[in-house]
């Protein structure tokens, strides 16, 4: 039972929040009353579609109906009405989907612009956004209760991804002005579309509310266990643990088609990464699609985002094939059975990261070159030249210790900075910046003859890789760490 | 003249200010199986870790294969240890895990098919190890350890999770390994398994 003090505190908090964000929000919304650049609408819509596909994927991965450990253990399996038990969860899902929907709506207006009748267009976009947010969440709940609905949700995600690709292609080609027709549509039909979307959303939400009473307990329990592990990883701030939860959940229960090892000796360790990646085609497709994002954000008028996105994407691609080195670093029992020299193992395991990082960078550069944001010619060699440095960074990230929460917190005028998580986040990135320094310099200067920079980059990358492998394996593999409370050596 | 594979002389281990065991002597030669028994906390696993070079004793001397044990690739090419369940590589089936071991070593004592058959894993060969039960995962772990070439096998409670029928089968597999000039030291609570292997029983007593 909430007391009047609780209500007073909640009301006061809401009033303070409105007072703080109200004025900036009005300024941002007022700035939306403009004619959108027709050349950027396709790319902007493609980015919004990618964000929405990400939201739906997150909803599906999370559950979305989850319970805390105590409720999952006791109340869920009791004779209490299921909807009563899940009431608080439903409220949380509603809040998340409303917030997500509002962001989506504002993003839509930002992309399409509002040449006239700002309030009507803004309202229609917010209704569309709320419809997408709430409707997507409702489909997630229905998908948890029924495999058929889960199939529909997966199909919807696929359709949205395809739509994003089509919009991105339109944005880069002669059809870039086609979506401008949508932006210039009269406010009347836009309102009708928003009304239809609201009706469909209401139908989906109603069905989801009905389905909430018959979501199988096993589905809620499975999602709750996942959520519990995620929460534990978040509490101890150990994202490494989180990635293992996702990885192990993916493989548990799977039947694989065994294939012979085409290589022998330590090379088999590199092949293990290639085989794992080949068995996750969806992840491979996401990586490939993400290589187009830098070009997409440039055409959407956000070149400064592309500057950060390109190296981050290349590093993420390189880091996506380090499961073996992470596994052996967590628990070297399997590496001892294999009896491979630590230096040879680390060197061989740098290979998949170097190749994938280089390939991703080259595809991203090709995209940037196609939209005129990057020079062509010999610049494609920058990818292979950066490969070794990216591999070093990925290996260092894979081998980093969990976050050290005993590190001091530094008070700054901008707020307190916990150095433990900061150092953890920078581990790996530091070597990427050091190893790719010539390439970053070349991109900043854009010299007419890139060959000296390319040579410098290749030598720096190989030098950093050699130095890292030598230093990291100095003194054998005697490293002790604790995983899940068990001390390992 | 028989050359000792393992020689342990007057070894003592202290952990956290507490003596786990002291004055331990042990020898093991080729074609010999030694079963180390003892109550919980007697230091069986600690002794195996000392033999594997993963724990430095506080006193005494340990020699394995003619030298002090060391956690190096050269040492592990001769010695294989199966203790706590290893972490499995993501994306590989049971068969691929066994085959990976043989590919890295360039061959082994058993072929992939023989190892899967000996450990009754044929029908589970295409699954990821995380899909298996505890006992089945223990069999995969033992299959990988016994399929690869080695001279010394260190087993920490190999009976863990195994049913009674398979324990009998395991005894036969271990006898066969020893008959091929192998040496086995295992920590166990299953005296029947030790007897079925024909092992020499050594009882470790916790330090008072």
Automatic annotation (TrEMBL), chain A:
Coiled coil: none annotated. The chain crosses the membrane at residues 12-33, 45-70, 91-114, 120-143, 155-174, 180-205, 284-302, 308-325, 346-371, 377-398, 422-445, 451-471. Pfam families: DUF6297. InterPro entries: DUF6297 (IPR046264). Keywords: Membrane, Transmembrane, Transmembrane helix. This is Uncharacterized protein.
Automatic annotation (TrEMBL), chain B:
GO terms for molecular function: ATP binding; ATP hydrolysis activity. Residues 6-208 form the ABC transporter domain. The keyword Protein biosynthesis does not apply. Gene3D superfamilies: P-loop containing nucleotide triphosphate hydrolases (3.40.50.300). InterPro entries: AAA+_ATPase, ABC_transporter-like_ATP-bd, ABC_Transporter_VariousFunc, P-loop_NTPase. PROSITE patterns: ABC_TRANSPORTER_2. The keyword Protein transport does not apply. Keywords: ATP-binding, Nucleotide-binding, Transport. This is ABC transporter domain-containing protein. It comes from Streptosporangium carneum.
């Amino acid at each position: 039972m909430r007391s009047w003090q609780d209500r007073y505190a909640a009301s006061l908090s809401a009033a303070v929040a409105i007072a703080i964000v109200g004025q900036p929000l009005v300024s941002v919304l007022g700035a939306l009353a403009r004619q959108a650049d027709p050349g950027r609408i396709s790319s902007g819509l493609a980015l919004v579609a990618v964000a929405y596909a990400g939201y739906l994927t997150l909803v599906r991965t999370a559950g979305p109906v989850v319970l805390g450990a105590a409720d999952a253990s006791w109340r869920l399996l009791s004779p209490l009405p299921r909807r009563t038990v899940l009431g608080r969860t439903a409220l949380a899902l509603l809040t998340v989907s409303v917030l997500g929907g509002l962001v989506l709506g504002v993003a839509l207006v930002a992309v399409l612009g509002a040449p006239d009748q700002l309030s009507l267009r803004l309202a229609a976009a917010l209704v569309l956004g709320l419809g997408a947010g709430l409707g997507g969440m409702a489909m997630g709940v229905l998908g948890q209760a029924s495999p058929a609905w889960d199939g529909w949700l997966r199909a919807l995600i696929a359709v949205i991804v395809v739509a994003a690709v089509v919009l991105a292609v339109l944005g880069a080609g002669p059809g870039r002005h086609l979506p401008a027709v949508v932006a210039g549509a009269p406010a009347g039909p836009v309102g009708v579309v928003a009304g239809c979307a609201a009706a469909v959303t209401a139908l989906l939400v109603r069905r989801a509310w009905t389905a909430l009473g018959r979501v199988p307990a096993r589905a809620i329990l499975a999602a709750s266990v996942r959520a519990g592990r995620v929460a534990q990883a978040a509490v101890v701030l150990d994202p490494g643990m989180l990635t293992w939860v996702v990885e192990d959940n993916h493989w548990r229960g799977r039947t694989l088609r065994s294939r012979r090892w085409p290589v022998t000796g330590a090379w088999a360790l590199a092949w293990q990464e290639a085989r794992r990646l080949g068995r996750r085609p969806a992840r491979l497709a996401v990586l490939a699609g993400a290589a187009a994002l830098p070009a997409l954000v440039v055409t959407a008028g956000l070149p400064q985002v592309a500057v950060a996105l390109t190296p981050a994407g290349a590093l993420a691609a390189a880091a996506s094939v380090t499961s073996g080195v992470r596994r052996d670093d967590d628990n070297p029992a399997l590496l001892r059975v294999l009896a491979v020299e630590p230096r040879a193992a680390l060197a061989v395991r740098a290979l998949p990261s170097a190749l994938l990082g280089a390939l991703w960078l080259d595809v991203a550069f090709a995209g940037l070159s196609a939209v005129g944001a990057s020079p062509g010619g010999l610049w494609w060699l920058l990818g292979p030249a950066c490969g070794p440095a990216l591999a070093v960074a990925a290996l260092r990230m894979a081998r980093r210790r969990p976050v050290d929460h005993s590190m001091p917190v530094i008070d700054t005028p901008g707020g307190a900075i916990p150095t433990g998580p900061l150092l953890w986040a920078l581990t790996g990135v530091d070597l990427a910046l050091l190893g790719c320094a010539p390439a970053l310099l070349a991109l900043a200067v854009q010299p007419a003859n890139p060959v000296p920079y390319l040579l410098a980059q290749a030598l720096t990358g190989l030098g950093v890789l050699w130095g890292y492998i030598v230093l990291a394996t100095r003194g054998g593999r005697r490293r002790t760490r604790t995983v899940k409370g068990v001390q390992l050596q | 003249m028989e050359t000792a594979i393992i020689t342990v002389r007057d070894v003592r281990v202290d952990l956290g200010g507490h003596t786990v065991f002291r004055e331990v002597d042990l020898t093991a030669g080729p074609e010999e199986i030694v079963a180390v028994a003892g109550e919980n906390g007697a230091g069986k696993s600690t002794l195996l870790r000392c033999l594997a070079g993963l724990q430095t004793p506080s006193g005494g001397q340990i020699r394995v294969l003619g030298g002090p044990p060391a956690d190096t690739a050269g040492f592990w090419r001769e010695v294989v240890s199966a203790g706590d369940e290893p972490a499995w590589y993501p994306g590989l089936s049971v068969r691929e895990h066994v085959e990976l071991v043989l590919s890295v070593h360039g061959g082994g004592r058993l072929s992939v098919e023989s190892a899967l058959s000996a450990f009754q894993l044929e029908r589970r060969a295409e699954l990821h190890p995380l899909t298996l039960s505890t006992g089945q995962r223990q069999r995969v772990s033992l299959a990988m350890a016994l399929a690869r070439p080695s001279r010394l096998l260190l087993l920490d409670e190999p009976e863990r999770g195994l049913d009674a029928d398979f324990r009998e089968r395991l005894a036969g597999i271990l006898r066969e390994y020893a008959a091929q000039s192998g040496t086995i030291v295992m920590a166990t609570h299953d005296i029947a398994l030790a007897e079925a292997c024909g092992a020499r029983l050594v009882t470790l007593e916790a330090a008072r």
